[in-house]
Amino acid sequence: MENVRVAAEAVLPFLLYIAFGYGVRLTGIAPESFFKTLNKVVFRAFFPVMMFHTIYKTDTNFQMDTGVLLFALVSLLTLILLLCLLVPRFIRANPVRGVFIQAVYRSNFVLFALPLTISVCGEGAGSLAAMLIAIVIPIYNVAAVVILETFREGRRSGIGSLLKGIVTNPMILGAAVGLVFFLLRLPLPSVLDETVEAVADMSTPLALFVLGATLHFKAVGRNLPYLAAGLTLRLLLIPAVVVTLAACMGFRDEKLFILFTLYGTPVATASYAMAENMGGDGELAGQFVVFSTVASILTIFLWILVLRTAGLI
Fold first, then answer.
1. Structural domains in the chain?
2. pTM score, two decimals?
């Protein structure tokens, strides 16, 4: 039952934010066009601040575990490359291709890794999770921008158009500014620092609220094949492959569990806003976030149970 509690406590706040947004829309307080505009605000204003804050606040004194880092980077980049090569063979529509690829490789690692790892492996494992978050999240976002720009609906052909879309993307700009401040050790005044942190903390709840407010279930039937395939890969097959490989390479305890959280947690919240604002299938992206979050209550519990039973964590 403890495993169920850990999984539920990590997931339920996300579902409540989504349900709150869905309920607000049903009351008719504001037209749906308002929430779509708010979604653009989240993508263009809040997410860049969140990216800046994530990189700017990276601990400069953490001890990097090169084994875990190399495994995570190689496995993640390999997965992204395989998806980009294989998915277009099975899915015809470009907006669906980009969303499907993003849903399969991009987890809610930044929000699940720390609480899950600390709950399952203890406080001492938190620094390792934080280290990997600082490295992986920029890769997640840069890859997402490239993929969504490549497969966006109505994209003009040519490398120039693709590069322009990448370098002008709000999240890339936020990450770039954050990297400059981090590398140059530029301090923010305390008042500004607190404001940036507060805005960054609002990003995910607001994004989930907007997702709930714009969510429609009428297209679930049409998207069911994509959802079934994507969620099976996201929550079951890919974690199984990665955990097996990691265990065979000698990773155990918190190192193995952190690698599991990289691949076995729900689809990233930001994937919906990015898809909606970058020519992807926003409806499918939102459904991936919702259904993966619901399903993960069960799958995370099962994975913790399997890993503990096998004596791996």
1. 2-309 (1.20.1530)
2. 0.86
